[in-house]
């Protein structure tokens, strides 16, 4: 499996280099950037196409990193609140189990009374 991944990555790199080599003219084209506000005009700035592609790539990486950070922090908050809820429910379960065992122990230690009323419950007599 390692070798298959290595071969695929090598082929992808080869395809990228071939595309760049065959399209060198397109990558070397220059574009003129100038801002004309009729009140203020910036000087002309010439930028090659490969620089534009690189800038767009870096901008995309930075944008995706920020989106990943925000998504990660949101998920972290959700996990934290759900873990807190799990702990609360576990405490509730342990309390129910301890009260259940306490009630079972009480019912085993208290002898059943022989006298019962109309409702089936015995009244305490002193």
Shape: elongated
Order of secondary-structure elements? HHEEH
Tell me the β content.
Answer: 5-15%
Low-confidence stretches: none
Cα-based radius of gyration, to the nearest Å: 38 Å
Number of distinct beta strands: 2
Number of H- or I-type helical stretches: 3
Category from helices, strands and their pairing: mainly alpha
For the report, how would you describe the main beta sheet? 2 strands, antiparallel
Record the strand order, biggest sheet: 1-2
Q: What percentage of residues falls in helices of 4 or more residues?
A: 55-70%
Round the mean pLDDT to the nearest integer and report it: 83
| First-to-last CA distance | 83 Å
Describe the protein's architecture and organization.
With 126 residues, the chain is mostly helical. The chain has a domain at 19-101. Helices cover 69% and strands 6% of the residues. The protein has three helices and two strands, in the order H-H-E-E-H. A two-stranded antiparallel sheet has the order 1-2. The longest helix has 61 residues, at 49-109. It is elongated. The N and C termini lie far apart (83 Å).
Brief characterization of the structure:
The protein has 126 residues and is mainly α.
